[in-house]
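SAMPLE LOG
Freezer: B-3
Tube label: C17
Construct: single chain, 238 aa
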Amino acid sequence: MLLTIHELSVYYGAVQALRDVSFTVSEGEIVSLIGANGAGKSTTLRAISGVVRPSAGSIVHDGKPISGLPSHRIARLGIAHVPEGRGVFANMSVRENLEMGAYTRSSRKEVAESFERVFDLFPRLAERAGQLAGTLSGGEQQMLAIGRGLVQRPDLLLLDEPSMGLSPLLVSEIFRMIVEINRAGTTILLVEQNASMALSVADRAYVLETGEIALEGKASELREDPKVRAAYLGDLAE
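STRUCTURE (predicted):
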């Protein structure tokens, strides 16, 4: 098992954001976390990547416990976090943003190969390599954020709301890239409010409600679950 979360709890002050959350991600999978705003999806990713510290529970990556480790050490272990809102460095060029993702790498040859892979996936980034990231469109910034994560050569990519604020056409393009990244060998844990798209690409999924796992199963089965359809897939239920 590449990632095992066991009875994870997280507090923000007196507010409990996650309560005894447990789930797994196997190597080669796309696993989606879906749920309403405030359900704890982003908090789960932040706990895995070390941005927030769990108050209880365990996180095991590739057989090694990582709970409580600082973010930079977790990144070096092979976990890349593409945050909600993209988080690109607006006053730096596309290439400089990608170089920020390569800080964990020591081999110039491997970094060059990673850049080539990113530019193959996202040709628009190659065309705009010298352009300031802040001048890119929202879709291009999302491509850059994903590319920056891929430059780390992670075995686990955490994606937080990659479709946020994008047009339907760009959402489809981003999700095609997610599938392609996975097929190339990167395991993906996907947080996404667009439940229909998330379940269409995932192998398995978990539904978070108010900080707890409410449902879990194969993504194809959850797409047909009446509770999921009523709560998250209204467009399909009509």
